[in-house]
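To: structure desk
From: M.T.
Subject: fold request, one chain
Message: Could you run this one when you get a chance? Sequence is below, nothing fancy, just the single chain.
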Amino acid sequence: MRSQSVKVEASLSPGNKLGTSLIAERSEKLEQLGFDRLFTAETGRDPFMPLVLAAHHTKQIQLGTGIAVAFARNPMNVAAAAQEINILSNGRFRLGLGSQIKPHITRRFDMPWHGAAKQMREFIEAINAIWDNWWDGTKLDFEGEFYKNSLMTPEFTPVTEGLKRPPILLAAVGPLMIKTAAEVADGLIVHPFCTERYLKEVIVPRIEPALEARGRSIADFDIQYPIFMATGSNEEAFEKSKAAVKHRIGFYGSTPAYKPVLDLHGWGDLQPVLRTMTKENKWDQLATQISDEMLETFAAVGEPMAAAETIRQRVGGTVDSVVLDATLEPDVLRDQMAILRAD
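Reply: Done. Structure tokens follow.
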């Protein structure tokens, strides 16, 4: 049985304009505020590079990618980048991976696409084979359908002594990727475009049998859920937050791969509408299609303490960690953390 207590995470770089000094300052601030973990996303910047600074300017907070695009790279350079951050942070790194969608992999990164779930399974298996070699001295002899790693010499083996092996978390929405996460990863990063019902009726039931086959339980499988929160310290901030979350719901809802979440709630017909709007470059109008009912289904809505209590009621005992907005006042964040961490 998973504890009702929930860890709290924050984004290191919510925008793409943070320079060296600001990344360092934000890393220190997140640790001082009491966050358990910080993460970087791969949007307009590389997710690994800011963590070099974060490792240098923090002592205890866990660091992670949330996420790094796996298929933009290969298993060896991901394994090496992860271990480099792990070394710099003295074992505090968590590797969060995601697949991205095919057009980004083939057209933006000019990398091969072999089918998201089966390619990701092999990608993670290859990383683990590399780490088996680095940590345990197991001969590197991985030969899959898409990736092959069979050469490693002592000169190119990084330091592992005294360090924990980084856990691998996999971002997943669809059933095949959810199953893959349970079969080969150490945890799951739930997409923000998720609801309590989808989490408990679709995701968890697909995780449990695969974990049982591995001899593991869901209690020791890390589930990270960056659930939407629409809140604010005053009415103006609250309305602005609600509008921003509605836009994110509309943005994610336009992606065909995320349609199953809408289907579960009877909103599947909205997906092609949102998709058409994005093709017509109507990005700023997506929020107009998201009802208040949808907002309250996808997000914790209300004043800060009420929103934190909503999150606890919805996912306490189911997930390991959630994401809080670090721009809120320190006293507000401390009170939210107290609510979420209560066992």
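Reply (cont.): The first strand starts at residue 7 and ends at 11. Let me know if you need anything else for the meeting.
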